[in-house]
Automatic annotation (TrEMBL):
Entry keyword Nucleotide-binding: no
Ranges for domain Spore germination protein N-terminal: 24-196
Signal peptide: none
Keyword Signal in record: yes
Entry-linked PROSITE patterns: PROKAR_LIPOPROTEIN
One Pfam family of this chain: Spore_GerAC_N
Organism lineage: Bacteria, Bacillati, Bacillota, Tissierellia, Tissierellales
Similarity comment: Belongs to the GerABKC lipoprotein family.
UniProt-listed InterPro entries: GerAC_N (IPR057336), Spore_GerAC-like (IPR008844), Spore_GerAC-like_C (IPR046953)
Subcellular location: Membrane
Alphabetic keyword roster: Germination, Lipoprotein, Membrane, Palmitate, Signal
Name of the protein described by the UniProt record: Ger(X)C family spore germination protein
Main location as per UniProt: membrane
Domain Spore germination GerAC-like C-terminal: 209-375
Length: 385
């Protein structure tokens, strides 16, 4: 064996023994490890009110489980409120493990820039932190609800977003993505929302849909269901369901389609001074559930169901786009950004007028749905006389 290699191996092994141990135990004891924070505004003096969820290290030493505690303070700025927590905790807050920032509706309406500035400027918070907007009266109350999967509320909210691939009803937006959309032309940012629900009679947090922004200020909300159609336009559908409610005929019924794959293309068209956007979706689904004996499995039935599902998707995409145009006046779909990338010459001509063009923009939606299977059932369940 090469002597140089042996020498290197000995050095590595020796260093391993010399450098291990509880060398940083005291440092950890001096820190309050933050898992998440809620940011509110005091109506009396307009100060920031912060509620930090801190991991309780003593609970892990005693019972072997992670628990959390909450620390509250206020300040003229976010950093001022954070530093004031030292008066309560006697420890400096450590932000490198924080996963969640929750903003109250009031904070989001006034503008999110102070929050972004703290996260981007400080060396500890990661740019992959998730930011939520609270649909409750305050952001702090979301950190005091019962947890279902873990005692650390902020971590549970992070897990909710990770599980959203099978739901596709909230946008998954991390800090750096929000900042990119905020700084780019022709696109407005969005954030996921949180609200309180009852589970077995106890209050707990749940995903609530989408917070729509115009520049850095909150403009309004989309529901969970409407968010799905926003994600179709943005080509961010990873799964979820399409529920086709057929109200026509003598026996109204519902068919549930499970989404396996989707691809959306946005194509800007400009002719004779008229601008329009073509949205083309291609979606692979299967029949997951139905409450009818009508045969949607054979070739004829499948073609009929496909047509109904395509109309359902087209109609709802158009509806959500119109809502963004008329109610929010906010291009959350990035149509302007698409024009800037695909037709920079055109964007140079119309970019400065985009704020007045977007609300009147003509949209054409073409959905193409392919029904791949019907599960284990080869024909609908029949009910005897």
């Amino acid at each position: 064996m090469n002597k140089s290699f042996i020498l290197l191996f000995v050095i590595i092994i020796t260093s391993t023994f010399l450098l291990t141990g509880c060398w940083n135990y005291n440092e950890v004891e001096k820190l309050a490890i933050v898992s998440g924070v809620a940011i509110d505004k005091n109506e009396k003096d307009n100060k920031f009110e912060l509620t930090a969820e801190v991991i309780d290290l003593k609970s892990t030493q005693v019972g072997g489980r992670f628990n959390s505690q909450r620390i509250q303070s206020d300040g003229d700025t976010i950093l001022d409120a954070i530093r004031n927590m030292i008066k309560i905790s006697a420890k400096k807050l450590y932000w490198s493990h924080a996963t969640t920032f929750i903003l109250s509706e009031n904070v989001a309406k006034e503008g999110i820039l102070p929050v972004l500035d703290f996260i981007a400027r400080d060396k500890e918070p990661r740019l992959s932190i998730n930011i939520f907007v609270s649909k409750e009266k305050t952001a702090a109350e979301l950190l005091s609800q019962q947890s279902i999967s873990t005692e650390i509320r902020s971590f549970e909210m992070d897990y909710m977003l990770l599980a959203n691939d099978s739901l596709s009803k909230v946008p998954e937006v991390q800090v750096y993505e929000f900042m990119n959309d905020l700084s780019n032309q022709g696109i407005s940012p969005v954030l996921p929302t949180l609200e309180i629900t009852l589970n077995e009679g106890k209050r707990t947090a749940e995903l609530g849909g989408t917070a729509v922004f115009k520049k850095d200020k909150l403009a309004g909300f989309l529901t969970l269901e409407d968010t799905k159609f926003l994600l179709f336009v943005k080509d961010k559908i990873k799964g979820g369901l399409l529920i086709v409610n057929d109200k026509e005929g003598e026996s109204p019924h519902v068919v549930t389609l499970e989404i396996f794959k989707n691809k959306t293309k946005i194509i800007p068209n400009y002719s004779n001074g008229q601008l329009s956007i073509d949205i083309r979706t291609r979606t692979d689904v299967s029949i997951a559930e139905e409450d009818t004996t009508k045969n949607y499995i054979d070739e004829k039935g499948r073609a009929e169901l496909r047509k109904k599902a395509e109309k359902y998707l087209e109609r709802n995409i158009e509806r959500v786009i119109k809502q963004a145009q008329q109610e929010f006046d906010s291009d959350i779909f990035g149509f302007g950004n698409t024009i800037m990338r695909k037709r920079p010459d055109l964007w140079k001509e119309i970019g400065k007028q985009w704020g007045s063009i977007f609300p009147e923009l003509k949209i054409n939606v073409d959905a193409d749905i392919h029904i791949k299977s019907s599960g284990h059932i080869l024909k609908p369940i029949q009910v005897g006389d």
